[in-house]
Hints:
The structure is a homodimer.
Chain A: H1 4-11, H2 15-23, H3 30-43, H4 49-54, E1 61-66, H5 72-87, E2 91-96, H6 101-113, E3 118-121, H7 128-133, E4 138-141, E5 151-154, H8 156-169, E6 175-179, H9 190-201, E7 207-210, H10 217-230, E8 235-238, H11 241-253, E9 263-268, H12 271-276, E10 281-284, H13 287-303, E11 313-316, E12 319-321
Parallel strand pairs in A: 1-2, 1-3, 3-4, 4-5, 5-11, 6-7, 6-8, 8-9, 9-10
Antiparallel strand pairs in A: 10-12
Helix pairs in contact in A: 1-2, 1-3, 5-13, 8-9, 10-11
Amino acid sequence: MVKLTDVAKKAGCSVTTVSRVINNYGYLSEATKNKVHKAMAELNYQPNSVARSLQGKKTQLVGVIFPSITNPFFGELVEKIENELFKEGYKTILCNAANDKEKERTYLQMLMANQVDGIIAGAHNLGIDEYKKTGLPIVSFDRKLSDNIPIVSSDNFAGGSLATETLYKNGARHIYFIGNPVLDGHPTQKRLQGYQQKIQELGLTPHVHPTKFGESLELKEMAIKELLQFHHVDGIVASDDLTALTVWQVANQLNIKLPQDLKIIGFDGSQYIQNYAPFLSTIVQPTSAISELLVKLLQERIAHPNDKLKQITYQLPIKLLNRKSCQ
Amino acid sequence: MVKLTDVAKKAGCSVTTVSRVINNYGYLSEATKNKVHKAMAELNYQPNSVARSLQGKKTQLVGVIFPSITNPFFGELVEKIENELFKEGYKTILCNAANDKEKERTYLQMLMANQVDGIIAGAHNLGIDEYKKTGLPIVSFDRKLSDNIPIVSSDNFAGGSLATETLYKNGARHIYFIGNPVLDGHPTQKRLQGYQQKIQELGLTPHVHPTKFGESLELKEMAIKELLQFHHVDGIVASDDLTALTVWQVANQLNIKLPQDLKIIGFDGSQYIQNYAPFLSTIVQPTSAISELLVKLLQERIAHPNDKLKQITYQLPIKLLNRKSCQ
């Protein structure tokens, strides 16, 4: 690692002068500035941001905590968040929290110890208290953490409703919802509420077939097989695209005629699913807008950590991608 | 943020005593140690690692630079690397370098400024010099950077050979390779070499249909359409699973009978492809072993940055996942 003394030696001046140039402090001639900048460039010297952070400046590090980037939706979201943060001069510390409470807790402690400037949280394991304890600026995706943490999400209610309506318009009358059946106040649960309200409006009977986020694929397949074999179902609203793909696969194994006898719609609509599962209808979340807003709100919290929030909940519009699986 | 003075106040002792407990320095009674630890726990105080890093200790940060985590293979690999680093007490700074040279260069500068302890590099944009300049411990995935940087990769040659043999055994005789046609000394290019040697052994004619990594999906589809419409082809070795999925989709659009008239095999075999593209045959890279080895080698470089390398190239075994697309 190149040191301040190396720059000073190369530039033919004192360490104090180099330090003054870097911190733009005190009188310096243009010639001196040029000499020092030239030496810094030649040696590829980077002012030490660790040292700067001790002088009360920011570390320009942001912790990004999400369940798993191997889910294509979270992968896309984290990539876009990382890009947005990069544009604003921040680096991303990635934490895949999976379903591991202990890992998420340890990460929060590590992030505090490393003095990140803030956290973008999209994981599902911990409650309000652990995040509050950090004393750091936080914004949340799709998850209610506390009254003083802004939440960004898609309009999940409209999505659940639109998915249900799409199946109905294409002829389905026995429409099931597959996903987490618990209504615990988090934004994603509004997909189920949107389904329920639309089903009621249409005069149909609601059916919720529970599966758990993070459950093994084998268990999910078993539950879906049971549903397709022993229930009268001709339409499925899946809580996410991976569940929808699993329904599609199980239905194929059971030789159910798709989409004639069973119509399926997913949720999330990542670019990956748009490109590589070209048959699947889905509700598309606006990942670019979500990422931009999360980073914008975090920057506001970093700049004014003690301001009272003007708005806590932000909902971004979804759209329908209607393809073969619904027709 | 809780300060040392808060801990001292809570514990009823001086700041110096608290500092001694944290740094385990000088004589301290058990009673004093207990008081301070209790106060730290109650206030959730974290010793400031930024301050510690200035005392010449490590930051426990590692930069991880890969093309894009929205590719399921890289997503899985980065997630596993993050997990391995976490187990060893490191945090991951994520950089999606995409095909953006300028971004990768800026990241390297930022990583130096932030004094990461090392870098795991899997991106494809920059040459040796930029990485050398950092003066940091580096290990590389699938990419030759310099004689002093260890490279971990799968046995790409065996993979290319096995893929070709698998198509042949299942009856294909006009076997094309789709991927990057340039042989530039990087490990991934050995897939093509493995294909070429096996084709020669089998007494067949080699055909390489060039596509570029990072090319838009539309261009790739157009190139594949041209291949399938105007060439006599009954088997395809794709350089990666996403290209294989695109071949599958284009063949479907052209009403080619799969797999009777066209057999396809991919490369990478991420868990995602195993689960959600259940028809696709592929060569599986051992992502867990790759991640473990990358982190292990990086730790060795961090501990002994100036040691001469005993070994530069590490190759891990691949395996065949043979499914519907080859039968």
